[in-house]
Amino acid sequence: xxxxxxxxxxxxxxxxxxxxxxxxxxxxxxxxxxxxxxxxxxxxxxxxxxxxxxxxxxxxxxxxxxxxxxxxxxxxxxxxxxxxxxxxxxxxxxxxxxxxxxxxxxxxxxxxxxxxxxxxxxxxxxxxxxxxxxxxxxxxxxxxxxxxxxxxxxxxxxxxxxxxxxxxxxxxxxxxxxxxxxxxxxxxxxxxxxxxxxxxxxxxxxxxxxxxxxxxxxxxxxxxxx
Length: 226
Description:
Radius of gyration: 20 Å
Number of helices: 5
Number of domains: 2
Number of strands: 9
Distance between the termini: 17 Å
Helix content: 25-40%
Shape: elongated
Strand order of the largest sheet: 5-9-1-2-8-7-6
């Protein structure tokens, strides 16, 4: 796993561009937005090829995500007739990286890991399922994104534990986390070197600077992804 920080990536890209073009001027904000774009595209492509399944270290864990009660209107279940209770994350959630099949989520569970919760595409799907006659026999716990938060149906947890791949800063959710008090640009990137090198090469290509990237097979052999 790389110990590279966001700041080191932006400095490296800026330095390479200045070496190529003396009049080049790029802001940190622009470089970081370009990084997020290409990191998301690279991760999704590798996920589509099944190359992230065995590489679990790319995923990060939010150890304690506090949940608070809310009503069914706020949860988006206004038409729900059956009795249900709802909770939501107290704080807005960082955005998950999108994979081949949707948000890159390994697991959402109770704090002790004893009960799992399945994330679904949206609240409309939950409303549809809940109207089916057989839904009363469904013991699965469900949650969904709405207005930057996760909403949970029929759970009484004070908090949950989430393992996934995130685009945004997650330090506020981490317990005893080294990056918690650091500015965003000084926080480490939870991506392996082979992904970072490809992302940076694609960023430079986007900026009109060509850099040779190793083939996927070389990545696979180096990182034992097969």
